[in-house]
Structure formats: C-alpha cells, structure tokens
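Query structure, 69 tokens:
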C-alpha cells in the first residue's frame, strides 16, 4: 500500500494519480478515472476532479492501493 501525504485541504483525483507517477500524463489519468478503474473508499469514482481528502483510500487499476494522510 502506498501512502500519500496531503499538504493542502484536498487534491483532485486525476492530479493525485499523476503525482503518484502512475501515468505519463494528466490525460491518461483522466481516462483511467472515466473508464471506472478507480475505487474511492470502496466505491467506483468516476469524477476526474473529485476532491480527495485525508482519510480517503483509493484502489487504482485493481492493484495499486493508496492511503491519503
């Protein structure tokens, strides 16, 4: 499980995926979200700009787990 230390109040989902270096571009991150490959706290998250806050748990692509701290 990866851990991401949040420095602000929130980070947009597609930006988090990009910052974690899971994709090469923001456009790829947006496609991953739009295609339903991201779960947030156990539910599929389709909003590219969803505000990810401390305490959120994400599963990206079925195998990358991220805890936001």
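Result returned for the query:
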């Amino acid at each position: 499980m990866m851990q991401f230390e949040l420095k602000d109040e929130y980070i947009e989902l597609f930006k988090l995926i990009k910052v974690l270096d899971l994709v090469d571009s923001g456009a790829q991150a947006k496609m991953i979200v739009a295609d339903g490959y991201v779960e947030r706290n156990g539910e599929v998250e389709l909003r590219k700009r969803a505000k990810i806050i401390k305490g959120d748990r994400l599963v990206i692509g079925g195998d990358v787990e991220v805890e936001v701290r």
